[in-house]
Amino acid sequence: MSAQSNSWRVNFASDNVGGAAPEIVAALAEAADGFAMPYGNDDLTEKFRALAAETFETELAAYPVATGTAANSIALATLAPPYGVIYCHEGAHIEEDECAAPEFYIGGGKLTLLGGADGKFSAGDLKAKLGDPSAAAAVHHAQPAAVSISQLTEKGTAYTLEEIRAIADVAHAHGLRLHMDGARFANAVNALGCSPAEASWKSGVDVLSFGATKNGAFAAEAVIFFDPALAKDIEFRRKRGGHLFSKMRFLSAQLCAYLENENWLRYGANANGAAKALADGLRNVDGVELLHPVDGNEIFARISASVHQALRAAGCQYYAFGEAPDGSVGIRLVTAFNTGDAETGHFLEAARAGAKGAAA
Ligand SMILES: *Cc1c(COP(=O)(O)O)cnc(C)c1O
């Protein structure tokens, strides 16, 4: 029997519906053998740190945690005091999808939201929002502490290196650190065609939530500080936040296998390639309109009622939202490290059949 016990033929609901990559499965099995010291005092955690430094071509401080929410929240808590402001996009995962965990970990804090098309805010809008630094110093105001961007964004787009640099320059000019929510960092690096270093610290990112779970791990993320001095109290925050794993070697084993042989970049490239194939196909289907540029492994579209019905009838799973009076719906499709031609082909065939059915 297949491990997939539900009846969906194709599942594009998210990238975390994909299983785990074989290299990571093998690494966990290997790590299960024998004895190792707890709480990160093990060889695999040390190896992960070395691999991360090599991958990003710089000295850094890297801390494994088990969820992206923890990575973001603990990272932001190291950057912001209880009276601190984090600037982020209004659709940011830290705003919409983390149940106020960042504010919880910060012990207060305040998210201040910026708008902007395709999931991005601009350096100019950030600058306008920050205004005159001397005005912010008044005791009555929460104090600017950090800026956070998601890469990929929540609309599946990638900030360009120039856009990141411009945001970082504004943040730094105001004495703020730049955090990047990299739940889909691998997909972004692939989209930009640059090095991991260029996609992060070389463009001004100070702290990265480095995601692996959505891209082939079981459950592993890391908080990476490119200025190790910023990491001064994270070990206490991580422990207090319940993310200092006693059997840390199992998180680190996943992260080592993820980074080794550039496996993570290969996984991300596969996911992005599958999304591109889907997007290219969908552009030619009547009744399908793409809503945002497809830079990585996520597609947002509006599809007609007949295409939606045909896809559901063909066993295609995805999130649908915003049904219009004509029955059309918005959908999000997310491809994964293990999405294959069989899945994208089946989906496109069903969509085309739905379009044809509507025309008949
Ligand atoms: C999935 C995701 C996360 C992490 O979510 P968890 O469910 O806490 O692991 C963080 N940021 C973005 C943009 C995401 O899509």
Automatic annotation (TrEMBL):
GO BP field: L-threonine catabolic process
Database matches in SUPFAM superfamilies: PLP-dependent transferases (SSF53383)
E.C. designation(s): 4.1.2.48
GO molecular function: threonine aldolase activity
InterPro entries: ArAA_b-elim_lyase/Thr_aldolase, Low_specificity_L-TA_bact, PyrdxlP-dep_Trfase, PyrdxlP-dep_Trfase_major, PyrdxlP-dep_Trfase_small
Keyword Lyase: yes
Native organism taxonomy: Bacteria, Pseudomonadati, Pseudomonadota, Alphaproteobacteria, Rhodospirillales
Keyword Lyase recorded: yes
Protein name from the UniProt record: L-threonine aldolase
Superkingdom: Bacteria
Catalytic activity reported: L-allo-threonine = acetaldehyde + glycine; L-threonine = acetaldehyde + glycine
Keywords linked to the UniProt accession: Lyase, Pyridoxal phosphate
Uppermost EC category: lyase
